[in-house]
Specification:
With 212 residues, this protein is an alpha+beta fold. The chain folds into 2 domains: 144 residues, Winged helix-like DNA-binding domain superfamily/Winged helix DNA-binding domain (Arc Repressor Mutant, subunit A); 26 residues. It is built from 6 helices and 6 strands; from the N terminus they run αββααααββββα. The strands form 2 sheets. Strands 1, 3, 4 and 5 form a 4-stranded mixed β-sheet that branches. The chain has a two-stranded antiparallel ribbon with strand order 2-6. β3 and β4 form a beta hairpin. The longest helix has 19 residues. The chain starts with a helix and ends with a helix.
Length: 212
């Protein structure tokens, strides 16, 4: 059990709620294999009389479904519903909830609550129909922690060089558009007054560093 779960409910940190796609982290095929290897190691019995370790076989099946069926290696998107995970992992919805909690306690994954706004019609105080916006929860967004030292996973804006594998795995339906990749900086125009001033400042900084 993690330190946060040992605290009383009113002292536990609140789960982050975000609009959109959550906090995607790219993870290549090799990284996914490392995550699965760690999870299998955590299945080994650590106590006498216990048939499994920190991770159960069902939790491993849920993790396998998340990593190989829903997580997009390139974009890091992974937000299937409990029902969809349960169908892929061959278990009940309640088992998915327990497995995800166990996997988070083991430090293998984490997740945020995804929310969205919907517009609904309802009568106001005078009985007249009006439209209002309401915020509702939708499926969670999951990200995984690479057990390699310093391999906590890349943020969405860093995914340009995320995959070393020749065949990165991931679902095509969750691909991000290429516009989310960080653009390369525009060259400085020396004919522009601002550009000329920046170039002079750059030369001055370079000359100052060379004289030290």
């Amino acid at each position: 059990m993690s330190f946060a779960h040992a605290l009383p409910n009113h002292l536990r940190p609140r789960r982050e709620k975000v609009f959109g796609d959550g906090r995607p982290r790219a993870l290549d095929r090799e990284g996914k294999v490392r995550v699965m290897t760690l999870a299998r190691a955590l299945m080994r019995r650590t106590e006498k009389g216990k048939a499994y370790g920190q991770i159960t076989a069902k939790a491993l099946a849920v993790l396998e479904a998340l990593l190989w069926s829903f997580h997009n290696a390139r974009s890091g998107l992974c937000f299937p519903s409990y029902e969809t995970i349960a169908a892929k992992a061959g278990c009940a919805r309640s088992t998915v909830a327990e497995a995800i909690k166990a996997l988070e306690d083991a430090g293998i994954l984490s997740w945020v609550n995804r929310i969205t706004r919907i517009r609904e019609r309802m009568p106001d105080l005078f009985g007249q129909w009006a439209t209002r916006w309401r915020v509702i929860r939708i499926s969670n967004a999951y990200h995984f922690r690479d057990p390699r030292p310093g391999g906590g996973g890349q943020q969405a804006g860093e995914r340009g060089n995320s995959s070393k594998s020749e065949f990165p795995s991931g679902t095509e339906i969750q691909d991000y558009p290429s516009s989310l990749f960080a653009p390369s900086p525009a060259p400085i125009d020396p004919t522009n007054p601002v550009g000329a001033a920046l170039l002079r400042l750059q030369r001055a900084i370079t000359a100052s560093s060379e004289t030290k």
